[in-house]
Amino acid sequence: MKLIVCPCDLPVIGFFCRHPAWFYGTLSTLYLIIPVLLSFYPCSQFHYNPVICKGITKAREVVLTFDDGPHPEFTPLILETLRRHSIKAGFFIIGKHIPGNENIIKAMNEDGHVFGNHSFTHSHLWDFWTPARIHRDIMKTASLISDITGKNPEYFRPPYGVINPMVSKAIRMTSYRVVAWSKRSLDTLARDPEVLLQRITRNLKGGDIILLHDNQEITANILEKLIQEINNKGFRIVPLDRFTKNNSDG
Questions:
Q1: Is residue 213 annotated as a catalytic residue, yes or no?
Q2: Strands 177-179, 209-213: parallel, antiparallel or unpaired by DSSP?
Q3: What is the pLDDT of residue 245?
Q4: 133 with 18, same domain?
Q5: Catalytic residue selected from 118, 122, 213, 241
């Protein structure tokens, strides 16, 4: 049996050999920090698997998804643009925004868009709740969408994209397919339309799931040009449900 000896003569390793408390303290800190950091990266699949982040496809196809609606002013503008181009998108709905905007939900349904659940409250503390409370919050949105459309959403995107052990356990209480993204527009922070367009269309790849927000004026304003730019690059925009069902989860 070969004995493995720690190379304590090396500078960094030597320090830890001489100060074991520092070694175990550093190891414990990493053990605590890494799971927290990976909570913010759903595509790491660290806390929940599978998460659909990108379609495995050789075709030049991409998907548009919109979070945080419905918005009474900007969502109808986005729906009208999508309608002109016969594009079906995925809308991840915040339940508390539905009351008073039921007609927008009906219009989405009539146009054949795919509904996703994006929680009811979208609270900043959402991922610190108990799994049972998170589950109730998710199902409250599901119930509202079902009451209006007669359909139960098949997809779920967690608020802020955060998946920690509490969120993971709550999702497992449902039958949702979790969808993240491969192309984050950062449209909630954007001020320059041209910069936003370049950010989205730069290095576009087949299978990309593009994250947008239908509660942003800049997104409603650039959507027409965005669709043209995507098409000019030789890509086709396809529906979320067909995209995810025709391709393996990525």
A1: yes
A2: unpaired
A3: 66
A4: no
A5: 213
Q: Do the domain assignments include residue 1?
A: no
107 in any annotated domain: yes
Distance CA 215, CA 88 (A): 18
**Domain residues for 149?**
45-246
CA dihedral 85, 88, 90, 94 (to 10 degrees): 70
CA–CA gap between residue 172 and residue 160 (Å, rounded): 19
What does the pLDDT look like over 111-168, one tens digit per residue? 999 999 999 999 999 989 999 999 999 999 999 999 999 999 999 999 999 999 999 9
Three-state DSSP state, 189: coil
Please count the other Cβ atoms lying within 10 Å of the Cβ belonging to residue 46: 18
In a 10 Å sphere around its CB, with 0-12 CB exposed, 13-18 middle and 19+ buried, how is residue 188 labelled?
Answer: middle
Rounded to whole angstroms, how far apart are CA atoms 116 and 118? 6
For the question of whether the overall pTM of this predicted structure is more than 0.90, the answer is no
Q: Determine what percent of the chain is predicted with pLDDT higher than 70.
A: 84
Spot the catalytic one: 67, 137, 214, 241: 67
Give the separation between CA 206 and CA 231, rounded to whole angstroms: 12
**How many angstroms separate the CA atoms of 196 and 174, rounded?**
35
Q: Residue 166: name the closest of 57, 64, 76, 36 by CA.
A: 36
What's the half-sphere exposure (Cβ side, CA atoms, 13 Å) at 32?
A: 5
Q: Of 127, 126, 122, which is closest to residue 94 (Cα–Cα)?
A: 122
**Cα 193 from Cα 19, distance rounded (Å):** 54
Q: What are phi and psi of 86, to 5 degrees?
A: 55, 45
Question: Are residues 200 and 236 both part of a single domain?
Answer: yes
Q: 139 with 242, same domain? A: yes
Let me know if residue 17 belongs to a domain. yes
